[in-house]
Amino acid sequence: MIKSLQGSVALLSGANRGIGQHIALELANAGWCVSLGMRQPVMPDWAAGLEERVHLMAYDAADAAAEQRWVDAALARFGRIDALVANAGIMIPKSVIEADDKDIDAMMDVNVKAPRRLAKAAWHALCATGRGRVIILASLSGKRVKSAGAGSYSLSKFAAVALAHAIRQAGFDQGIRATAVCPGFVATAMAAALTDRPADHLTQPEDLAHIVSMLLSLPNEASVAEFAVNCQLEEFF
Fold it and tell me: Is the pTM above the cut of 0.90?
């Protein structure tokens, strides 16, 4: 049974554009309070009239101290945290041979280490709800390596999928449920640089937002460990 979570609080990284912006709008329209992590915090146009339920936080996923500051600020504002949506991510399109350690470290820092730190910082608050939720925006690149140029990115996204499973294992008895959401090409600026497929033939960010909202609303007894979604036919998906 899908549950209404009006008044619940979600932290969302990478919320200023693309997938993150659509998720923020979807949750706010569903009655959630949302704390939006952004490099440059600006109240979005869609939040007009909803300001009391929208919290902005300057957030840089590469800053190892940023997650604790964010959690503390969100708790000070709302008094609880029910869900995390780790959406911030970067891609450096290099093979594992072309990439250097700085490239790999940058993607691991943002795509894996930052979501882990965020979950750790919010852990007690998530456990306190009895139904804490963690969504890791991974990728189908975390399920298969489709090309050499995506290899380094896949390395980090495989780790992001594993992170979701590890969080699920660590908090299951406390009611925490974690899901790795793994889309293929989504109609965003990142995808536009990687594929010639028309934007209307790609997964739409608002559809991913619907999926995330649904996953957050499922009861503890309907745990979804991974959710793969694709715009095209592939042998494995």
Answer: yes
Q: How confident is the model at residue 20 (pLDDT cuts 50, 70, 90)?
A: very high
Residue 147 makes CB contacts below 8 A (sequence gap 6+) with none
Could you give the CA distance from residue 215 to residue 33 in angstroms, rounded to a whole number? 17
Axis-axis angle for helices 205-217, 18-29 (nearest 10):
50
**Given the residues 153, 163, 171, 177, the one annotated as active site:** 153
Dihedral angle over CA of 164, 229, 150, 13, nearest 10: -50
Q: Are 7 and 27 in contact (CB under 8 A)?
A: no
Res 1 pLDDT > 60: no
**How confident is the model over 35-51, as pLDDT tens digits?**
999 999 999 889 898 88
Distance CA 133, CA 187 (A): 26
> Cα–chain-centroid distance for residue 88?
6
Q: Which DSSP helix (H) or strand (E) runs through 114?
A: helix 114-129
Decide if 153 is catalytic: yes
pLDDT category of residue 3 using cuts at 50, 70 and 90: low
Dihedral angle sign, alpha carbons of residues 83, 1, 209, 107: positive
Angle between helices 151-171 and 101-108 (to 10 degrees): 30
